[in-house]
Design goal:
Radius of gyration: 20 Å
Shape: globular
Order of helices and strands: EEEHEEEEEHHEHEHEHEHEHEHEHE
Mean pLDDT: 96
Largest sheet: 7 strands, mixed
CATH class of the largest domain: Alpha Beta
Number of strands: 16
Structural class: alpha/beta
CATH topology of the largest domain: Quinone Oxidoreductase, Chain A, domain 1
Length: about 325
């Protein structure tokens, strides 16, 4: 079976989109007819050799995706796809049967393709880590991002008051249209003034850097800070007196620590919420597979609103 795939042939070099022979699946494997595959920073880091530097090269990238197996809509993630074995940036892929997760009616395959990393991170941080309720006021730092935009929708679906933060005024209307009750345009230093009376009980922080300390300053007493990323910087100053005087709880989430089985279980819980509209996965665009390198460039330039996916059929 001939397929088209985006291949990493050398770390730090552009991917090559080429045809190759897929081969035959083993007894515990299946052929996934891929429709869409998510684009994530981890894919770019893998292409640069910053993640899984000893993984085989050449290989097909792509750690999450959705499509059909024998006509049945499914999504897949993990199990070494895109790292220790060929991934999902291809028109078809051989995948472990244990990785298959049924996609229920009402879930678009583009959204399902992004549930394996950003979607499950949003679900677990909101429902398991922070345990958000309708009584909460939730501040989402980086609310236009892949995880942040899903957190906005999920917290809103639970009934919480949601505040989305962005550093650029041009993002204001997009964040508001995707579920935020309020939008603040501010950097870390201006966060307290921008929030005015909107003091959150929960902050979701995927930025790090100076934002983590600023989040502690704006949280209400007994508030929860959920740290799941550090795109603005891996280090920051923490105001210790504020932290203990307010009795702030710092929580963290690392998807890489979870097993494939635990993540699959969480995704199976999240998909019905997605089908019912209690959460959404905002899709910026579905780019043709031939534009895989352009997708990386958009990640680098931070011009993505929500999630990017590759349309592996084009």
């Amino acid at each position: 079976m001939r397929v088209t795939a985006a291949r990493l042939v050398q770390h730090g070099r552009p991917l090559q989109v080429e045809e190759l022979e897929l081969g035959e699946p083993g007894g515990q494997e299946a052929i996934l007819e891929v429709a869409y595959s998510g684009v994530n920073p981890v894919d770019m880091y893998g292409a640069l050799g910053l993640v899984a530097p000893d993984a085989p090269v050449p290989r097909t990238l792509g750690t999450e995706g959705a499509g059909t197996v024998d006509g049945r809509p499914v999504m897949v993630r993990g199990y070494g796809l895109g790292t220790i074995r060929d991934g999902l940036w291809a028109s078809a892929a051989i995948v472990p049967r244990g990785a298959l997760i049924d996609v229920p009616d009402g879930v678009d395959l583009r959204a399902a393709a992004a549930m394996g990393i950003a979607g499950v991170t949003a679900w677990r941080t909101v429902t398991e880590v922070a345990r958000v309720s309708a009584d909460d006021t939730v501040l989402v730092l980086g609310a236009k991002g892949g995880v942040g935009s899903i957190v906005v929708s999920l917290a809103r679906g639970i009934g919480a008051t949601v505040v989305g933060q962005t550093g650029e005024a041009a993002n204001h209307d997009w964040i508001s249209a995707h579920g935020a009750d309020y939008v603040v345009v501010a950097d870390a230093g201006g966060l307290a003034d921008a929030l005015a009376d909107l003091r959150p009980t929960v902050v979701f922080d995927g930025l790090g850097g100076g934002f983590t300390g600023a989040a502690i300053e704006v949280l209400q007493p007994y508030g929860r800070l959920v740290l799941y990323g550090a795109s603005a910087g891996p280090e920051g100053l923490v105001p210790l007196r504020t932290l203990y005087r307010k009795s702030i709880t710092i929580l963290s989430y690392a998807g890489l620590m979870a097993s494939d089985e635990d993540l699959a279980a969480a995704i199976r819980q999240a998909l019905p919420a997605l089908a019912a509209g209690r959460m959404t996965v905002p899709i910026d665009s579905a780019m043709p597979l031939q534009q895989a390198n352009d997708a990386f460039e958009r990640i680098r330039q931070r011009t993505v609103h929500g999630k990017l996916v590759l349309d592996t059929r084009s």
